[in-house]
Amino acid sequence: MQALLDLVEFNTSRDLVKINPDKSEILTVKYKNTVKATLNGQEISNVSNVKHIGIDRNGKNTVNIEERLRTAQRTIYSLLGPGLHAGRGFSTIVAHKIWNTYVTPRFLYGIEVQNLTHTYLLKLERYQRKVLKQIQGLPERTSTSALYTLIGGKPIELLLDRNYLALFMNIARLPESVEYKILRRQLLMAEQDSKTLASNARKFLEKYNLPTPKELLEEIPTKDKWKKMFKKASNDYWENTWRQELATQSTMKYLQVQHPVVDNPHNMWKSTRPKQHKVQRAEIKARLITGTFILQTNAMKFNKSEVLSNLQTVWIR
User: Which domain of life is it from (predicted)?
Assistant: First the structure.
């Protein structure tokens, strides 16, 4: 490492550029011992974590999940002032659009280049589901499939798969780069269950029934063509998944799944005007069709009371 730093110091001094050692830090990855190195005659400090191009990195290259959740929370709270609140009659579709545009990119930024465990993925999913339930006025017990079907949302898993494969395709379009050579080597040498870029890309492509990495490298599609391919494949995958889950839930018999599901809010939300009483009425409709609105017939099952025989039918328009 010292030889590389000496080379950097020599070339920068020749170009009349000086790197500040106080702003330079050493982060060792998968190496417990500290590394002694100097730059411009001054020793560089060793750190356990560092922020590089906006990404918090540590020695194990794992995701700082708590910091990302705090970032999402701070961002969504900062939007409450302009009126992002269902109780004020804010449009549910607009609120979901704001979430996708401003919040999601912030707390998922650069996560595809780090090691994300299944536990951390579930934490991100739970937080997004919590926000989407609040936007639609749905209780915590709402089915996940019904939640995404109503709002036309994208699961965190889908967003991460998209970003990961986008990184893979960007490297595939640079055949002269060092990253491309590393990728080719990983495809030949890495094991199927390893955490390398090639292995994960192979798993995601197989998941959405897309061409194999080898086929993509032989005939690289354009960016527009790739976006259309992935969008169609991912939409079909999640639509089939949600349809199968909803078919097994008896309380979802009134929920009609539209096609396509992703990025296509339910007609109930599309027809709701951004007025407080309209939004509140739509929230009641959402609870009725998701089976989370407690009727007297439902309460009877728990308190063993009799249902009144003179109940009138209430129509919600």
Answer: Eukaryota
Distances (CA, A) of 236 to 80, 128, 207, 290: 34, 22, 11, 22
Tens-digit pLDDT string for the chain (317 aa): 788 888 888 888 888 888 887 888 888 877 777 788 888 888 888 887 888 888 888 878 888 889 899 999 888 888 766 555 555 667 889 889 989 999 999 999 988 888 888 999 999 999 999 999 988 889 998 999 999 999 999 999 999 999 999 999 999 999 999 999 999 998 888 787 778 888 889 999 999 999 999 999 999 999 999 999 999 999 999 999 999 999 998 888 888 888 889 999 999 899 888 888 888 888 888 888 888 887 766 666 666 555 555 555 544 44
| Residue 23 lies inside a defined structural domain of this protein | yes
Model-level pTM greater than 0.70?
A: yes
40 and 9 Cβ atoms separated by less than 8 Å: yes
CA-to-CA distance for 286 and 136, rounded, in angstroms?
A: 8
**101 residue type, one letter:** T
Q: Which of 69, 66, 68 is closest to 55 using CA atoms? A: 68
Helices assigned H by DSSP within 16-155: 65-78, 92-98, 104-107, 118-136, 144-151
- Among residues 230, 253, 283, the one where a domain terminates is 230
Contacts of residue 78, defined as CB under 8 A and 6 or more positions apart, other chains included, come to: none
In this structure, what token pair is assigned to residue 151? 């709002």
Query: Does residue 192 sit in helix, strand or coil?
Result: coil
Compute the distance between CA of residue 33 and CA of residue 126 in angstroms, rounded to an integer.
37
DSSP 195-228: -SHHHHHHHHHHHTT---HHHHHHSPPPHHHHHH
Tell me whether residue 192 is in a domain: yes
